[in-house]
Amino acid sequence: MSPQTPTSVQVPPVLGGYHLYQLLESNAPTHIYLATDYETGIDVALKVEHHLKATSRSAIQYEQKIYSHLPAKSEGIPQFFSGGSLGGWEYIGVELLGPSVATLLAESGRSSLELHSVCCLGMQLIDRLALLHDHGILHRDIKPENCVIGLTPGTEQTIYLTNFGCGKYIRHPLRFMNDGDLQMGFFTYIIPPFVTTLAYTYRDDFEALALTLIHLIKPYGLPWARRGMLRQEDRLGQQLLSTAKANTAMEGLCSNIPTIFKDFLLYCRSMKVNEYPDYQQWRDRLSEPIVEKGYEAASPFYWPPLPLPSSPRASRHHSPVFISPQETHHLSLSPIPLHLPTLPAHSPQDDFHELLLGGHATKAALIKILRFDILPFANSNRKLADVVLQFCDVLQFHRNGPYITKDGFEFLNQLINKLSGGLEGVWHFDKEEGFVAVKLAELEDLRDEVRAARNKQQLAKMVICFGEAHRGKHDKKATKNGFKFLQGLAARLKTL
C-alpha cells in the first residue's frame, strides 16, 4: 500500500529508486520518510513534496540547489544522495540523522541547557555557517529544530545544520538585494523582510545563531518564542512578533545568563549589512567559558566535552585530548549527554506554553488551563496582563481559528470578576437588528480608549462590551479591533 501524508494524498511507494517505508515527520507541504536506496541498500531521509506549480519553486527545489553549491561531503552538513521529480512529486534523499537539539531539550523536561553544552553547540554552528557563507549560501532558518545530532557511530556528538529549503545562493558575494524573496521559515530568530528595507545577509544568519544560543541557555527561552512559532504567511502575527522583539530590552533579554551571549548579540547588531562575521573570534570567545569551567577546549569530535579526570581547571594551552575507541567502552555517548541543570518542576505557565507551541492541544484545553490554573493566581496587574496576552495568543494562533468558544466567554467572565473585584460579567445581549453593529462600533472606540482607563473597574466594563460585541456575532469570530483592544488592555494593566 502506498504511504500516505497526513492530508491523505497518496505518495508513490517508490520514488527515484527509493522505497518509502515510514513517515518520520510532516511539516506541510514537505514530508520526510524513512526510505531505502534500492541499489545501495542505504537508509536515507527522503523529503517529498507535492508540487504542481510550474511558475514557482518548491522548498525541495531550493534545497537541492543549495546542495549543488556545497562540497559533496562536509562535516556537520547532511550528505546529499540524489533528487528529482516524478508525477508532480519533488524528492531528495539525504543522510538519515538523529534528533534535534529542540527535541532533546523538550524530552529532558528541563527549561535550558548548561553553559558548556550551549558554548560547544555554538562553536560547531559557527563552523557550519562559515562553510555555508564561504560558498555564498545564506541558511535563513537557524533554530534549535534545525540543529541535529548524528545517527551513525562516531557522529553522535556532531551537530548537523539541516533543512536548506529556506536557503539562498548569493551569486556575487557581499552584494545583497531585498528582492521580496519570502522563502524563509519561522521568524522567531530572524527579522521578517517585509518589516525592513534591508536584505537578509550573513549578518542575519549570525544574529539568528546568537538568539538561538540565548534561547537554549535562558530558562524557558526567548520571551517572544513563548508566544508561539509564527509562519511566514502570517503577516499580522509577524508584525506583532517584530514589535515584541523591538519592545524587549537588551538587559531583560540577556538577564541571568553569561555576558558572553549579550556581547555576541551586540556584535551581530553592530555589523554592517555587507560585512562578513568574524567566525574565528567568536569561536574562540565561546571556548573561554568551557575552559574556565574545567574542560578542555571543545574538539569537533566530542560534544559536549568530557570532564577532565584530574584538575578542576584546565590550562588554555593544553593540547587536545584524543581518546582511543578502546578507552571509550565505559562512556555513554548515545544518546548525547546534555548536562542539563536541575530545575523546578513545570508550572501551569510552562504547560500552557508547551501545549500552544506543540499545536496539538484543543482550544478548550488551553483556555481551561488559563481559567483554572493561571488566572486565579494572577495577583498583580502585570500577571493579569500576561494572562490577557495568552488568551489573545490562543485566539490568534490556534489552528481552529480566532473564534471565541463557550470556554472563551467563561474566561472573559472570570476576567471581569478579577478586574472588578466581584462584578460578574453580565452579557446584555439583544437580538434586535443593529445591536451587534452598535456594539462593534463601540469596540472600535474602546480599542483607543482602553489605554486611558483610570482603574480596573473601567477595564472590566470595557471587557463586558468586548464580550457583548462578539457574543452577538453569528460566527463568534474575534475582530481586528477586538485583538487591538485585548493588546491595549494588557498594555494598560502593566501601567496601572
UniProtKB/TrEMBL annotation:
Residues 18-291 form the Protein kinase domain. Signal peptide: none annotated. The keyword Coiled coil applies. Its EC number is 2.7.11.1. Pfam families: Pkinase. InterPro entries: CK1_Ser-Thr_kinase, Kinase-like_dom_sf, Prot_kinase_dom, Ser/Thr_kinase_AS. Keywords: Coiled coil. Residues 436-463 form a coiled coil. Gene3D superfamilies: Transferase(Phosphotransferase) domain 1 (1.10.510.10). It is an enzyme of class 2 (transferase). One of its GO terms (molecular function) is protein serine/threonine kinase activity. This is non-specific serine/threonine protein kinase. It comes from Pleurotus ostreatus.
